[in-house]
Each structure stands twice: as C-alpha cells, then as structure tokens.
Amino acid sequence: MTFNIKKLAIAATGTMPVRDATGEAQFDEQGNALSITFHSPGTKVHQAAKHAAEERNNTRVFGRMQGKSEAKQSADDKLQERATFLSAITVSFNNFGNGDLTGHQLFMKTYSDLELGHITDDADKFNGDRGNFKKSSETSSPSSSVMQPG
Fold first, then answer.
1. Considering only CA atoms, which of 87, 90, 112 is closest in space to residue 37?
2. 118 — phi, psi (to 5°)?
3. Phi and psi (nearest 5°) for 37?
4. Which of 42, 85, 89, 100 has the fewest Cβ atoms within 10 angstroms?
5. What is the largest CA-CA distance in the chain?
6. DSSP state of 11
7. How is 92-142 classified by DSSP, letter by letter?
8. Quick one: three-class SS letters along 33-72?
9. Who contacts 29 (Cβ-Cβ below 8 Å, separation ≥6)?
10. How far apart are CA 62 and CA 136, in angstroms?
11. Contact 99/12 with Cβ under 8 angstroms?
12. Could you tell me how far CA 21 lies from the centroid of its own chain?
C-alpha cells in the first residue's frame, strides 16, 4: 500500500497565542488564553488575500516604473496594506476585543495600531510558517503551546 500524501496536508485554520511585547502569553480575567485564529495558507481565503496583496503591490511597482508619483507607498499605506492582508485571513479574535468593534473593523483597528505592532509582527511570523497549521494527530494527547501562569 502506498503512502497517502494528503496525510501531510495542513489544517484549514491555525490559532496563535497572543503575547505581550516581552513574549509572555496573555490571558483574560477568567484565565482564558487570548488568541487569534487564522485561515491557513492552504485555504482559498488565504490564497485570495495573498493574491490581492500581490496585485496591489505589482500595480504600485509598475506605476513607479512608469513614473507615476502616486505609485509611491507611504509608511501609512504600508501599515494599512499589512493590516488589510491580516484582516482578510483572520477568522476570529478569541477572548479579547478592541472597544465595541467587531469583525473586519476590529481586525483592521488592532493590526493598524502601532502600539500593538508586536501582535501584528507575531501574526506575520505565525502565518509565514506552515508548521503552525499542522493538523492535530488523532493519536497524540491534547496539549497546548500556551501555558497558564501560576
């Protein structure tokens, strides 16, 4: 019998623990871990968001090559571009919010907040490693990469 290569497929989502700027995992008042769930790079949602970001970048590059000054990207534009991509691949914020915002508006506000840049940086790193989307083994014992303080 041959090995079924689909056993190596990544999961449709992955969940990243939210950490503070020093790298400490964060918890809400009830002790629930703060986390963000993302669509994995193996999903059409993620691929569509990546394609859209690449298309915007290509349009900007070609515009600069043609001498169009509006094709230059400011620091604010770059920040919004990054927030737009991460918002598009975010499934949910788990156990935390940002004011009364929900959904896409919540994601955009959080990812574009310079004071929360460490979370945005962590999200970029997390999504850049397909190993973070590994499917759980049915034979392994349940565990968590986030340990509760205590």
1. 90
2. -65, -35
3. -100, 130
4. 100
5. 60
6. P
7. EEES--STT--HHHHHHHHHT-GGGHHHHHHHHHHHT-GGGGBPPPSSSPP
8. ECEEEEECCCCHHHHHHHHHHHHHHHHHHHHHHCCCHHHC
9. none
10. 43
11. no
12. 17
* Residue written as token pair 């499917």: 135
18, 128, 86, 111: CA torsion to nearest 10 = 50
Q: Which two tokens stand for residue 40?
A: 């994995």
Could you give the percent of the chain with pLDDT greater than 90?
70
Please state the pTM of the whole predicted model: 0.82
Report d(CA 23, CA 26) in Å as an integer: 9
Amino acid code (one letter) for 141? S
Q: Count CB-CB contacts under 10 A for residue 54.
A: 11
> 70 is written with which tokens?
């509006």
The SS3 assignment for 146 reads coil
